[in-house]
Design goal:
Layout: H1 10-17, E1 22-30, E2 36-42, H2 43-59, E3 67-71, H3 76-87, E4 91-94, H4 101-111, E5 115-118, H5 120-128, E6 138-141, E7 169-174, E8 184-188, H6 189-203, E9 210-213, H7 222-225, E10 228-230, H8 244-254, E11 258-261, H9 263-275, E12 285-288, H10 295-304, E13 309-316, E14 319-326, H11 327-333, H12 355-364, E15 377-382, E16 387-391, E17 413-418, H13 430-436, E18 437-439, E19 445-455, E20 461-466, E21 471-472, E22 477-478, H14 480-485, E23 493-501, E24 508-515, H15 521-535, E25 546-549, H16 565-572, E26 578-579
Helix pairs in contact: 1-2, 2-3, 8-9, 9-10
Length: about 575
C-alpha cells in the first residue's frame, strides 16, 4: 500500500486494474436512431486526462496547498479538475451553483481561494464581484464545453502524485444551507478514503459497475470505486426540471446498476416508469437521500426495481454515511404503512417495540422529550465504524461529551455521531465549529448533526426532524417528521410542513400544504376542513387548527427535497390562514 493517503491515488490504481473499461460517458446528442450518443473515456484515458489537467494547472502556477475555487461543468471537467487538484496537493473548493448569488459570493469571500479554476462566465463573475474574489491571485480558465478535453496540453513529464497524510486538508465542500447560511466543511484525505471504503462495503459495490449520479459531486467517488460514470442529462442548478424519460433511457441503454438521487427525483422517475409499465432490471441499487423517503416511494420501488433495491443512506455533508436503511428493512418494520411505532400507554395497549420502549414512550409524551406517539422516518442501523448517540436537546455549545446527557431508547433528542468520516471543523467559522463539535475523553470528535431523533429497542435510528425547525408551544415540543407524516398522505397534498408561529415557548403550530393542483377559494376551504378533521383523530395533532396553502415550497437546490420550513414560517405571517376550530 502507498505511504501517501492522497485520495487521487485511487484513479491510477483503477486505470492499471481495468485500463480499457469505460470510466466516463458524457452525453453529446442523439444518434440517427434516437440512442444517446456518448463521448466515452476509458480509465486509462481518464487517468491521462487528469495528468493533463494537473500539468496545465502546475504550468499556470498552482501549487500544493493552494485553495482552488472550482467553477466548471459537471462530468469530465469536474472529475478531472478535482482529481488533478488532489494529485498536485491543491485543495478544491466546491460550492453549489444554485444557492443564490448573495450566498455564493459570501462563501467565496470566506473560503479565501488563491486560485480560480472556472469557465469563462465564472471568470467574468470574479471580475464583477471583485470584493468577494479579492484573495484570487491565479486564474485558470476551463472550457465551458463539458466535452472539452485537455489531453493535448499534457507535458512530456507526468505530474508526480504529491504525498499527503490522512490528516491533511483535501477539500472544502459546502453545506446546502437549508436551515441557515451555507458552511464550508473541511475534508481531510483520510476522511475521503474512509468514505470510499464504507460506501463500497455497505452497498457491496464492485469495480465494473455503472453509475448514474444525479448529484454531480457524488461522481467523484466513482473513479476510486471503479465504477463507470454515466453523466445524466440534468441541470444541476434545476434538478426538479429533469425529464424522467431521459434518465430512464440512459439507465436502459447503458445498463446502469447504481444511481444516487433525491426522493423528489426518484419519485418523478418512479411515476414515469409505473405509468408506462416500465421496470429497470439492470439496477442493483438506488441510493436515495437528501430528505426522508416517502412511504409511497418505498412501495413503488418494489415494482420498479425488479432485480434491485432502494436504499436510503443517512448523513450530512459533515459526516456521510452514518446509517442506511433498505426497502426490505422498511417492510419488516410495517408492511402496511410503516407509520405507527407506539400508542398512548394504557393497560389495553400493546407496544410493538417491546416493554422497554413502552416505558420510554411515557417520556415521549411530555414537553421534555417531544409530544408525539408516532414514529418519524427510520434511517436504519449505523454503518460499520460509526458510533451514534442520542443526547438531550440543547441550543448551546457542548465542549465535552461528558457534559451531555445521553438518552434512553425511545427518547427523542439530538443525534450525535463519531467515526472516520466525521469532519472536525468548518472553514473559518470557529463559532459554528464550537456549536457543532463535541470532544470526548479520548479526543475523538462527535458531530451534532442538527437533527433530532431516537434509537429504538433494536438499535435502529429514527429521524424526527431538524432541531432548528422544531416547534415549541406552551405545552409541547413538536418535531416535524412525525406530524407531517400524518398529513402528507392525504389526497390533494403534494408536500406539507409543520411550522411554528410566534416566539419559541409560545408558538402556535400550523400546517402549510403545497397542493397537488391550483385551488379555488372553495377548494382550499374544503381541503382545510379535511385536514382539520384528520387532525382531530389524534390527541397530539388535535392542537393544530391553522392551515395554509403555498403553491410551490421553497426547497434546497441540491436535492430539491429539503423544505425550507423557517422561510415558510416567515411567509405565513402575511399569508391567508384557514383557521378551523
Amino acid at each position: 500500500m502507498s505511504a501517501s493517503a492522497n485520495i487521487a491515488q485511487h484513479l491510477p490504481l483503477m486505470a492499471a486494474r481495468q485500463p480499457d473499461r469505460p470510466a466516463l460517458k458524457i452525453p453529446r446528442g442523439r444518434t440517427a436512431r434516437g440512442d444517446i450518443d456518448y463521448l466515452s473515456l476509458t480509465f486509462s484515458e481518464l487517468d491521462a486526462e487528469v495528468d493533463a489537467w494537473a500539468a496545465h494547472m502546475q504550468g499556470r502556477g498552482v501549487k500544493a496547498g493552494d485553495r482552488t475555487l472550482v467553477m466548471v461543468r459537471q462530468g469530465l471537467p469536474l472529475i478531472a479538475a478535482a482529481f488533478a487538484l488532489f494529485k498536485i496537493g491543491a485543495v478544491p473548493i466546491v460550492i453549489d451553483p444554485g444557492m443564490g448569488l448573495k450566498s455564493f459570493l459570501s462563501c467565496v469571500a470566506r473560503s479565501q481561494p488563491r486560485v480560480l479554476l472556472g469557465i469563462p462566465f465564472a471568470q467574468i463573475i470574479s471580475r464583477v464581484a471583485q470584493k468577494s474574489f479579492r484573495s484570487v491571485r491565479v486564474r485558470v480558465t476551463a472550457s465551458g464545453n463539458p466535452l472539452a478535453r485537455r489531453t493535448s496540453a499534457l507535458a512530456t513529464r507526468t505530474p508526480v502524485l504529491i504525498s499527503r497524510s490522512a490528516s491533511d486538508l483535501a477539500a472544502i465542500l459546502f453545506t446546502s444551507g437549508s436551515t441557515g447560511a451555507p458552511k464550508g466543511v473541511c475534508y481531510e484525505h483520510g476522511m475521503f478514503d474512509a468514505q470510499v471504503r464504507l460506501i463500497r462495503e455497505t452497498y457491496a459495490i464492485e469495480p465494473g459497475e455503472i453509475d448514474l449520479p444525479m448529484l454531480p459531486i457524488f461522481a467523484l467517488f466513482n473513479p476510486a470505486l471503479g465504477m463507470t460514470t454515466v453523466v445524466p442529462e440534468i441541470d444541476p442548478s434545476k434538478p426538479a426540471a429533469v425529464d424522467p424519460a431521459k434518465i430512464v433511457q440512459a439507465i436502459q441503454q447503458e445498463r446502469v446498476t447504481n444511481s444516487f438521487g433525491s426522493p423528489t427525483l426518484w419519485g418523478k422517475i418512479a411515476d414515469h416508469c409505473l405509468a408506462r409499465d416500465i421496470t429497470l432490471p439492470s439496477m442493483k441499487r438506488v441510493l436515495c437521500a437528501g430528505a426522508p423517503v416517502p412511504s409511497t416511494l418505498w412501495e413503488k420501488s418494489k415494482r420498479l426495481l425488479s432485480n434491485g433495491q432502494l436504499h436510503s443512506p443517512y448523513g450530512a455533508t459533515e459526516s456521510l454515511p452514518i446509517s442506511t436503511v433498505s426497502a426490505s428493512d422498511i417492510l419488516v418494520l410495517d408492511p402496511a404503512t410503516s407509520s405507527t411505532i407506539c400508542h398512548p400507554i394504557d393497560d389495553k395497549t400493546t407496544d410493538p417495540m417491546g416493554e422497554t420502549a413502552k416505558k420510554d414512550c411515557h417520556l415521549m409524551n411530555d414537553k421534555r422529550a417531544g409530544a408525539f406517539s408516532r414514529r418519524g422516518a427510520c434511517v436504519g442501523r449505523p454503518v460499520n465504524g460509526i458510533e451514534v448517540k442520542i443526547i438531550a436537546i440543547s441550543d448551546a455549545p457542548i465542549a465535552m461529551l461528558a457534559d451531555a446527557r445521553e438518552l434512553l431508547a425511545g427518547e427523542i433528542g439530538e443525534i450525535v455521531v463519531s467515526g472516520p468520516v466525521v469532519t472536525k471543523e468548518y472553514d473559518s467559522l470557529p463559532d459554528a465549529t464550537a456549536a457543532a463539535k463535541i470532544k470526548d475523553v479520548s479526543g475523538a470528535i462527535w458531530h451534532r448533526i442538527g437533527d433530532c431523533g431516537y434509537r429504538d429497542a433494536e438499535g435502529r435510528l429514527w429521524f424526527c426532524g431538524r432541531k432548528a425547525e422544531r416547534v415549541i408551544t406552551a405545552n409541547a415540543e413538536m418535531f416535524t417528521e412525525p406530524y407531517e407524516r400524518t398529513f402528507r398522505s392525504l389526497p390533494g397534498v403534494a408536500r406539507c410542513a409543520l411550522v411554528g408561529l410566534g416566539e419559541r415557548g409560545a408558538q402556535i403550530p400550523a400546517i402549510i400544504v403545497q397542493p397537488t393542483k391550483r385551488l379555488s377559494a372553495a377548494e382550499a376551504h374544503t381541503l382545510a376542513i379535511t385536514l382539520r378533521e384528520h387532525a382531530k383523530q389524534n390527541a397530539q395533532t388535535a392542537m393544530i387548527t391553522r392551515f395554509y396553502f403555498h403553491p410551490n415550497f421553497p426547497v434546497d437546490v441540491r436535492h430539491n427535497a429539503k423544505i425550507h420550513r423557517l422561510t415558510l414560517a416567515k411567509w405565513a405571517v402575511t399569508a391567508q390562514v384557514h383557521e378551523i376550530l
